[in-house]
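Researcher: First entry.
Model:
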Amino acid sequence: MTVDSHPSAHLTTNQKIKREIVSWLWVILAFMVIEGCLVQARVIPSASMENTILIGDHVIVSRIGYDIGLPFTMWHHPLWRNPHRQQIIVFRAPLPGTPDYIKRVIAIPGDVFEIRGGVVYINGQPLPEPYRLGVPNGIDSYGPVTIPPGKYFAMGDNRDDSYDSRYWGYVPRENILGTPLFIYMSIDAPEEVWDPGHLGERLATYLSIFIHPREVRWSRLFRPF
C-alpha cells in the first residue's frame, strides 16, 4: 500500500487558486503591518545630514511607538513616543508634494533655542555638537525663540547645505514618522539617482554594483545610529 505524502495533489483547480490567493493575502498583510507599524527602508537623496548620513545611504527606520500608517497612502497617526534632543528623525515634509525629510532634533518643546555666531544655545547653554560637519559660521544667528508645545526644531548636520527649521519653521509632533536604526546599504552614486522618479537610473545603479563592487561603501554597512 502506498501513501500519498502530498495532499495538495488532490485539490481542485478552484481550491488551489483559493489557497494561492490566501497565501498572497497573508504576504500583503504582513507587509502592511511591517511597513506601517514596525520598520521602513529609506534611501537618502541629499547631503543635508553629512557626514553622519551620506547621499546613497540606505537606512532602516523604526516606527515602533512613534507612528502608525497605511502604506501607499497619506494616512498615519502619531503614537506615544517622543524624540529626544539630538535624535535623528524621519518626518513628513512641511511643504506639500515634498518627499519625507531626515534631520536631527536640536530643540524640543519648552526649550529656549538660539544661534549666536553659528553656535547653538539651548536654554542659555552652548550645545555640544560632535556630529556637525565643518565649523560654525560666525555670521549665523537665530532667535532666541521658545519651542511651542508639540513642536520640534530640526536641523541638518551639514548646516551650510540644509533646508531645515531655520527656513520653514517647526516640525509638528504629528509629522514625525520614526527614527533610523542602522545603514543596511550605502552606494556611491550621483545625487539625482536617488531623487523620486528616477527609477531607471536607480535600477541601473543597483545592477552596476555587481560589476563595480567598489561603488558600495562597505565600511558603512550595518552602522547603527
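Researcher: Second entry.
Model:
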Amino acid sequence: MASTDLPEFRDWSIAAVRLLQGVIYSDDERPWNLVLASQSHLVTYFARLGLLLVVDEPEGLAYLRQLTDDEQPAGYEQLPKLYRRTRLGYDETLLCVMLREELRRFEEEELHDERCVIDGAELFDQWRGLLPAQHDEVRSRREVSAALAKLEDLGFIRKFSNEPETWEIRRILKARLPAAELESLKAQLLRAAGERGRGERARDTDGQ
C-alpha cells in the first residue's frame, strides 16, 4: 500500500497506541486529553478488537482490558486474545496486598500529596513482619527484589528514587485489586503464610 492510500491521520491514534502500550495517567497530559476528547472513537475501535476501554476520570487513569466471555457479542469469541491474565505467585500477591494497603492509607491520610511513595527499607520491614521468625534475611531480600521487579513489569509500581530506594505505587493497582477483594485476599495469604511457616519448620527438623 502506498503512503497516499493510508487513511487520513487522526490524533486519537496517538492515544490508541499509548493505550496498547499500557496505562495512561492524567499527568501525561497530551494522550490523556486525547482519550477524553476521542473516547467514543476509541471505545468503538477497541471493541472491534475485543477490548474494553476503561476511563476513570476521578482516579485519573485510562486502560484497556480484555472483554470477558459474558461480555462478548456473538462472533467475538473467535478473536485471538491480545492480553493474557498474569498469574502471580505467593510473593508477588503478598507484595500487591501490602502495596494496596499502603495506597489505601495514603488516600485516607495524605490528602495533599499527588503520589503514593513508599521507602524500600520500610517495605522490607513490613515484609519481614509477615514471615516466620526463622526466615533467612538474604533469602527474604531476594524474594522482595524479585517480586518488586515483577510488579514493576506489570506497571503496578515504578522506581521513584535510588538513594534512598523508594517506589511509587501506581493507581492502576486499585483497579486490579479493588478494596472489596482486599480483606478476603489478606485472609488467604495469612493462612498460606502459616502453612508455609509450618512447612519450613518441618524441613528444618528433618534436616537435623
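Model: Note on the second entry: The first helix runs from residue 12 to 21.
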